[in-house]
Amino acid sequence: MKPVHLLGALGLVLMAGCATLQDTAPTISPEMAAHASMVGVPADTLEVGRRLMAMRCTTCHSLEPIANYTASKWADIVADMADRSGLDAEQAQQVTAYLQAARSVL
Ligand code: HEC
Q1: What are the residues whose beta carbons fall under 8 Å from the beta carbon of 48, sequence distance 6 or more?
Q2: Which atom of ligand 1 is least distant from the CA of 68?
Q3: Does the Cβ of 41 fall within 6 Å of ligand 1?
Q4: Over the chain, what is the mean pLDDT?
Q5: Are 23 and 65 spatial neighbours (Cβ–Cβ below 8 Å)?
Q6: Rounded Cα–Cα distance for residues 61 and 19 (Å)
Q7: What pLDDT was estimated at residue 5?
Q8: Disulfide engineering: 98 pairs with which of 16, 24, 49, 87, CB 3.0-4.6 Å?
Q9: Which of these, 101, 103, 94, lies nearest to 64 by C-alpha position?
Q10: Ligand 1 pocket, 73 CB below 6 A?
Q11: Ligand 1 near 81 CB (within 6 A)
Q12: 89 CA distance to ligand 1 centroid (A)?
């Protein structure tokens, strides 16, 4: 019985420590698109940014919940991580636009 209990406890710990895709890379909602359009960013850009983030920002570590940082802190983080991710200036901007639109609706 004991090993079974141990596995159950481990499972709970792992689940608690694991952010969902909806926390770390939510799909583009109408609210996110509306926020982006207010700052002159087309909805297409958000999808490009989301995909770039999912591909390039997960090679060294997992994604963090978007709620963990403010919109302006995300801009700093992407600026810091862009080189390491091989993102050019336009791509970094696309990732930032996505993160900021997602953060604005939380
Ligand atoms: C080449 C490896 C690598 C890639 C690619 C990478 N990171 Fe990081 N990231 C790190 C390391 C290492 C740290 C630990 C802190 C540091 O060194 O600045 C970190 C820390 C972070 C943090 C913690 C906050 C902080 O300021 O320390 C966040 C959030 C983050 N990365 C987001 C991203 C995003 C978004 C991308 C994609 C644009 C990305 N990372 C791509 C290596 C990487």
Answers
A1: 94, 98
A2: 29
A3: no
A4: 89
A5: yes
A6: 13
A7: 58
A8: 49
A9: 103
A10: no
A11: yes
A12: 17
* pLDDT for residue 13: 46
Asked whether the beta carbons of 40 and 80 are under 8 A apart, the reply is no
Ligand 1 atom 26: residue of nearest CA:
77
Cβ of 50 closer than 6 Å to ligand 1, yes or no, is no
Report CA-CA distances (Å) from 85 to 58, 79, 88, 89, 95: 9, 10, 9, 11, 11
C-alpha 6/C-alpha 42 separation (Å) is 49
Hunting for tokens 């919940």 — which residue is that? 65
Which residue, judged by its Cα, is nearest atom 25 of ligand 1?
77
Q: Is the CB of 92 under 6 A from ligand 1?
A: no
**49-101: per-residue pLDDT in tens?**
999 999 999 999 999 999 999 999 999 999 999 999 999 999 999 999 999 99
Indicate whether residue 77 lines ligand 1 (CB < 6 A).
yes
